[in-house]
Design goal:
Blueprint (H helix, E strand, L loop, with lengths): L6 H22 L4 E6 L2 H14 L15 E7 L2 E9 L5 H6 L7 E9 L6 H14 L4 E5 L7 H5 L3 E5 L6 E6 L2
Parallel strand pairs: 4-5
Antiparallel strand pairs: 1-2, 2-3, 3-4, 5-7, 6-7
């Protein structure tokens, strides 16, 4: 991929790819939604911008203590309708230990947000969980928000296993094995 494109050209490039995906879906009547793992630096930067724009907590500074960062997008009819940032449990090792969550073969959902109208997040979370299950991961876990119902995690099959000691945030887990 050419990396010296200006931002405007890069955005146009992404929009053209999404338009082609939408045309393909319409032409062949294939499933109109798909989980995509973002691997290119430009794609991850686009996902980061979407999180900065649409997530209530934006992006935390740093995040470098974690390993195994993974970014996912949920494409519906050729449009990015949700993005998620996952990483290993290293920054939350003490919390994982408290709740007996293995920190070696699990992923922590750092951010998940929808980027267009509609109810896509439950299907998105379930697709991510299925992909990680196929990879042999043990569980997927996250912290809920205090000022939120956290119904998303319950509807996606997550179980509340307790609350954090310091901030009293709910801890949700979904066993994959």
């Amino acid at each position: 991929m050419i990396t010296c494109l200006s931002r405007a050209l890069y955005v146009q490039y992404i929009l053209n790819i999404l338009r082609l995906i939408r045309i393909y879906c319409e032409a062949f009547s294939v499933v109109r939604y798909m989980l995509v793992e973002l691997e290119l630096r430009e794609d991850i930067e686009l996902a980061r911008r979407l999180v900065r724009r649409y997530h209530a907590q934006r992006l935390p500074p740093g995040g470098g203590a974690a390993g195994g960062h993974r970014w996912f997008a949920w494409i519906v009819d050729g449009y990015i309708c949700a993005v998620a940032w996952l990483h290993d449990s290293t920054p939350f090792r003490a919390l994982a230990t408290k709740f007996k969550i293995s920190h070696k073969n699990t992923y922590f959902i750092r951010r998940i947000c929808k980027t267009c109208p509609g109810d896509y997040l439950v299907d998105f979370l379930n697709a991510i969980a299925e992909k990680l299950r196929e990879e042999g991961k043990e569980c997927l876990w996250t912290l809920g928000l205090d000022d939120h119902s956290n119904a998303l995690y319950r509807r996606a099959g997550f179980t509340e296993i307790g609350r954090t000691p310091r901030t009293n945030q709910p801890v949700f887990i979904k066993k994959l094995r």
